[in-house]
């Protein structure tokens, strides 16, 4: 490898400076800010619902917030006052795991665990915050936390399907539980099982470190890839970040010892001018300017992507060459805001005042931020300043505990406590050890030899191209020649005559509950039920009379064999005239069925054709842990299914969510699923 040598000359003086003068605090709505100011009461209501403390129905129809607060305080090891006191508010504002604190047991409902001890994992992508080798090491050490006290082994795969699929993402990142921007929810993981279960997701709007500030692994130079040492001295000046001082080419560098003046050890810091990661260019540096979609770019961009990741072309024209890579984050890059990955610009103007360092002015949460152009008032480009960040090792060890079957602990010093806390010298708490050994037993004998991976052990090259995000304004009907696996969201799903029926745009498919014959169809709806419209919203079969009820918008039909009644308006059943549609149904036996719409449900007495008194009730108060506004609800093989977008939440007879997954891949067993 060719050594790149620094040519030193002084371009200017590096100074430590502060903002120029005090101004009166004025709170500003920053564009792109994911956080919104909430009252304490709004915060409590959101928190208690999100993390499972409000999930049961009382006779009044509303969950007592005081009792919910006491449950939360007990779970988090706080004084159980039942009041929204300052200690409780402070706890609600702490960064934490996104997995709900559903119950006090140490394992998920049903003691979910893997049925084998040789667990495989795969890292699907990387964060730009740290070198890939550091991320790999953090994950390996996190798995070792659990293999040290159990018979489990963990083997990494570089292709194919693994038990635990690991990925970084932002906001809506492809599962039912979106992240919330910087701080707040750090990560989440699913309990063992098929499909999405077992997977671990990390919020890439966080600043991932080893818990004590940026970890910069150098490249080239003469330090053999050593970590930057901050602060370091160069020509008598102290530097706390990478610098371009002393160089003509603008490449950022750092010393890998406390004093470059004495030791002359240095390396180059992450920069798109040196390398990229991911993509399909094998790490080649960006080429500026480059052409994408007919436009010229002089820096990394997020255009063409809907995940917020910065990329560049590695030739002068992406349109012709299709070669690209993702841009690494510089140590001075902002986090979040609307300028992710761009460096702070000092000085900058904010409300007509000049700032030469990060400031918390304009914010009610005290977080430090900066502008990424010279004038925030004009350009409104900004981001949060780098801080100590979150230890990827500690957060990963916690999430992998969930992926193995552990729930949250109420012991504040336990790894499985839901709130994040940096620990310099980590050791596993006895509560964590007891929980994981309850599932898998203690470690016995010498370390077993891990099984050989079933797929390639060398990293493949990613070839996904950045593409313009398109927005469809009108739905496209299903082509009858296509199959159910090409449908993203069905109009209605119902179990009829022992078979699952899936309706979409005038057609339907059936699937045997035994799943021996697979999917059949599509069949025209009018072939079986001539009176029905093309688009249905829900359906159910009455257990006692075997009559089949179909709903579309605010009308319903009742089929008894070939005989039909309807259409009739849903007000005939006692439902409100203002109700636009019934979106789900759950037969409950004894002639009762629950009908769902928006965030409420009604209980219908099929025999009397009337809604029972005491309804509607709120879905999330009775069925804790499911979507507040499901687009479909149905009964299948004794389980309740609540659907939102392409996902489902399955609930058992004890009203416990025991599985979350994809309708197409997990229920219908469609092929070509990249997870499991």
Automatic annotation (TrEMBL):
Binding site for Ca(2+) 3: 180-181, 185, 203, 206
Positions annotated to bind Ca(2+) 2: 163, 199
Motif Cysteine switch, chain ranges: 95-102
Reaction equations catalysed: Cleavage of gelatin types I and V and collagen types IV and V
Active-site residue list: 399
Enzyme Commission numbers on file: 3.4.24.35
Residues annotated as binding Ca(2+) 1: 129, 204, 206
Name listed for the protein in its UniProt record: Matrix metalloproteinase-9
Source organism of this protein record: Chanos chanos
Name of the gene this protein is made from: mmp9
